[in-house]
Design a protein that fits this description.
The chain is built from 21 helices and 13 strands. It is α/β, with parallel strands linked by helices. The chain has a six-stranded mixed sheet with strand order 6-7-13-12-9-8. Helix 1 (9-26) packs across helix 2 (38-47), helix 9 (248-255) packs across helix 12 and helix 13 runs antiparallel to helix 14 (395-409).
C-alpha cells in the first residue's frame, strides 16, 4: 500500500473534488466563479493551489460571507457547509436580484430538509445542480485528518458544557464523511472505560450513521470493507501529549511559536521571513519524524552537497556551462531555500534543547517509562521530580513534570498535591492539574475511582535514544490491532468486524513473515483511529511508523484537532470556565 503524499488524504480529497464539483463544471466550457465558506476554503487550500483551479476553468475564488460585485453573465459554484448561515447567504445572492447566471451547489454533508426546501422555494430556477459530496473533514497530512474543531474539547469535557451531545453528533457526521470519501465501511470498536462513556457514545453514533449513509447511498448494497475504526478518549494516554518530544516536527511545534503551520524566522541579513511547513516541502516530509540528532547532522550535509554541485569541476567557465547553470538556478534556489529554512528551524530547536530541555528530558523519561536508562525501576518518583522543581524552569515546564509524576503514581494524596502546587507557585491556577479528572485521569487517589494502567508492549530490543525512550500508547494499540491482538473485553466491537480482522493469524509488526491467507485479505486495508479530545504530533508519527513497518495496512489517525503541550494545558485549565463559545459546524463557518 502506497503511503506517500501522492496517495495520501490530501490527494484523495482533491481527486474527489475533481470527480464531483470539477467534473460537473467541465460539461460547460465557460469560466466560472467558485464561492466558499471559511471551512470549505480551508479544505480546498489544504489540497490544491490556485493554479490547479485555474486549469479547471475556475477564474475567481470568493468568500460566501463577503459582499461581492454581481457578475450576471457568469455561473457560480457554491461549495459550502449545510448550515442556516450558509443557506441564507446563498439565498441573498439571488434575491431580490440574481448576482450570477446560475448556481451549482455542493454541500460538504447531508443538508437538512428544511434548509433544502428553503433554497428550493427561493432560488429553484437558478439552481442547476444541488449535491451532497460527503466531505466535512480536514486532510491535514497524508495519514492525518482533523474535524477542524478545537472547541470540541470544551464541549465534551467541561462539566458546564451544554452541547456535548450535539458536538458528538457533529464529530460522528464528520467521521462518516471521512469513511465515505475513503470508500470504506469499517467495523467500529471503542476503548472501554469504566469512568468515561464518550468513546462508546461516539462509536454507537458513527455505526448507526454509517449504516444509514450506505443504505441511502448504495441502496443498502454496501458490504463492510476490510477496514477497522477504533475510537479512544484523550484520557487513555495523558503522558504522550505532555512529554517533551525530540523528534523534529513534535519538538518544533512544542518549543517554537508556529501558527497555522507557518514558521517565522530572521534571515542572516536580519529580514523577517516565513515558511510554510507542509507536504509541499519534501524535505519537511523527509525529516519531520526523525530525531533532532539526525536532523542536525543531515541538513548541513545537504547544504554542502548543493553548494558543491553548483561549482564547476574543471574550473573552466564556458558559455554552455553558464547556460546549464542558469537553467538549474531556480531549482537550486528552491533547494537552498528549503534547506536554509530547516537549518534555521533545527538550530532554533537545538538552542532550546541545550538551554533546558535536555535536563528536563531525563527526568520526564524516567517518570513516564518508570525506569532509568539502564532499565533500573524508579522506586521513588519524588526524587526524580525534585531537581526539576528546584531548578528555575518555566511554570509550564514544572507543571508538565508534576503531571508526569502524578500519572506515574496513578494519582496522589490531597496533602502531597497541595505541596506540589505550592512548589510550582500555582495556588491560583491549580486547575492546570485538578481538571485532568474531567478526562477520567486519576489525580487524587480514591478507592471509588478505578483506573488500571494498560499493559505495555516489550520494546527492550528496539533501539532508542536515551532521552526518547517513551512510546505513545496509541502505537501499541495500532500494532495490536494490525496483529489481531486487541482484547475484545477492552475493545468491544460496536459492529461486526470484517473477516480479515477477526481471526487469529497474528503477525508481528516488527518481524518478516510469510503472508497468510488472512494477511493477504488485509493487504491494502485501512486502520482508522479517532482520538476524542485532540492528538499529539508523536501519535501522528506513530501512524506512519506502523504503516511503514507493516506495509499490508495503512494507518490513518485523526481527531477534532491537533494538540501541543501548551494548547492542551490551556484547554485543561479552561474546563473550569462557564459555557464558552463552542465551534460546531454551524458556528465554525462564522469563525
Amino acid at each position: 500500500m502506497a503511503t506517500g503524499s501522492d496517495h495520501g488524504l490530501k490527494r484523495i480529497v482533491w481527486k474527489r473534488i475533481k470527480e464531483t464539483i470539477i467534473a460537473d463544471c467541465r460539461k460547460s466550457e465557460v469560466w466560472k466563479i467558485l464561492i466558499l465558506d471559511p471551512f470549505t476554503a480551508k479544505i480546498l487550500s489544504s489540497c490544491c493551489k490556485m493554479s490547479d483551479l485555474m486549469s479547471e476553468k475556475i477564474t475567481i475564488v470568493e468568500d460566501l460571507y463577503k459582499s461581492r460585485e454581481p457578475v450576471p453573465e457568469m455561473k457560480a459554484i457554491y461549495f459550502m457547509s449545510p448550515t442556516a448561515k450558509c443557506v441564507e447567504a446563498f439565498i441573498s445572492d439571488f434575491k431580490p436580484k440574481p448576482k450570477y447566471k446560475a448556481a451549482y451547489v455542493y454541500f460538504t454533508d447531508y443538508c437538512p430538509d428544511d434548509l433544502f426546501m428553503k433554497m428550493k422555494l427561493n432560488c429553484a430556477k437558478y439552481i442547476r445542480v444541488c449535491k451532497e459530496i460527503n466531505m466535512s473533514f480536514m486532510p491535514q497530512e497524508a495519514q492525518v485528518f482533523t474535524c477542524d474543531n478545537p472547541g470540541a474539547f470544551q464541549s465534551i469535557y467541561s462539566p458546564k458544557s451544554q452541547d456535548k451531545k450535539k458536538t458528538l453528533e457533529t464529530l460522528a457526521d464528520q467521521l462518516v464523511t471521512l469513511c465515505a470519501t475513503l470508500d470504506e465501511y469499517p467495523g467500529v470498536r471503542y476503548k472501554k472505560d469504566s469512568n468515561m462513556e464518550n468513546a462508546k457514545t461516539l462509536a454507537e453514533l458513527v455505526d448507526n450513521k454509517l449504516s444509514r449513509h450506505y443504505e441511502l447511498d448504495d441502496g443498502g448494497g454496501k458490504k463492510k470493507t476490510q477496514a477497522q475504526l477504533l475510537i479512544v478518549e484523550r484520557g487513555f494516554d495523558p503522558v504522550s501529549p505532555i512529554l517533551h518530544e525530540l523528534t523534529y516536527q513534535a519538538m518544533s511545534y512544542d518549543l517554537i511559536d508556529i501558527q497555522n503551520d507557518t514558521y517565522k524566522y530572521k534571515s542572516k541579513d536580519g529580514s523577517e521571513k516565513q515558511a510554510l511547513l507542509n507536504e509541499d516541502d519534501m524535505l519537511w516530509v523527509k525529516l519531520r519524524h526523525k530525531h533532532l540528532a539526525e536532523v542536525s547532522e543531515q541538513i548541513p550535509k545537504m547544504v554542502k552537497e548543493i553548494s558543491a554541485s553548483k561549482k564547476q569541476p574543471d574550473g573552466k567557465i564556458t558559455i554552455s556551462n553558464l547556460a546549464q547553470l542558469m537553467k538549474k538556478m531556480p531549482s537550486f534556489r528552491k533547494q537552498l531555500t528549503e534547506k536554509t529554512v530547516h537549518l534555521q528551524l533545527a538550530e532554533d530547536c537545538m538552542r532550546h534543547f541545550s538551554n533546558n530541555v535536555e535536563k528536563l528530558c531525563k527526568a520526564e523519561q524516567d517518570l513516564a517509562v518508570g525506569s532509568d536508562v539502564d532499565g533500573v525501576k524508579v522506586k521513588d518518583p519524588m526524587r526524580t521530580l525534585l531537581p526539576v522543581l528546584l531548578h528555575p524552569y518555566s511554570k509550564h515546564d514544572k507543571i508538565r513534570a508534576v503531571l508526569l509524576y502524578i500519572f506515574s503514581l496513578n494519582g496522589t494524596t490531597d496533602e502531597n498535591l497541595n505541596k506540589l502546587i505550592q512548589h510550582v507557585k500555582i495556588e491560583e491556577e491549580r486547575e492546570f492539574i485538578l481538571n485532568w479528572k474531567e478526562l477520567g485521569v486519576p489525580i487524587i487517589t480514591s478507592p471509588s475511582f478505578f483506573s488500571r494502567k494498560p499493559s505495555r508492549r516489550d520494546r527492550s530490543q528496539e533501539q532508542t535514544y536515551n532521552l526518547s525512550r517513551w512510546t505513545p500508547y496509541i502505537k501499541d494499540v495500532m500494532e495490536d490491532a494490525v496483529e489481531n491482538k486487541l482484547d475484545t473485553k477492552e475493545w468491544p466491537h460496536q459492529s461486526e468486524c470484517p473477516a480479515a480482522w477477526n481471526g487469529s493469524g497474528a503477525v508481528s509488526a516488527r518481524q518478516k513473515h510469510k503472508a497468510s491467507a488472512q494477511d493477504e485479505r488485509r493487504t491494502g486495508s485501512r486502520l482508522i483511529i479517532f482520538v476524542i479530545g485532540g492528538i499529539s504530533y508523536s501519535e501522528m508519527r506513530s501512524a506512519y511508523e506502523v504503516t511503514h513497518a507493516v506495509k499490508s495496512c495503512q494507518v490513518i489517525i485523526g481527531s477534532s484537532h491537533i494538540l501541543t503541550p501548551t494548547s492542551l494545558l490551556d484547554d485543561i485549565k479552561a474546563l473550569s470556565n462557564g459555557p464558552m463559545e463552542t465551534f460546531t459546524i454551524e458556528e465554525r463557518s462564522n469563525a
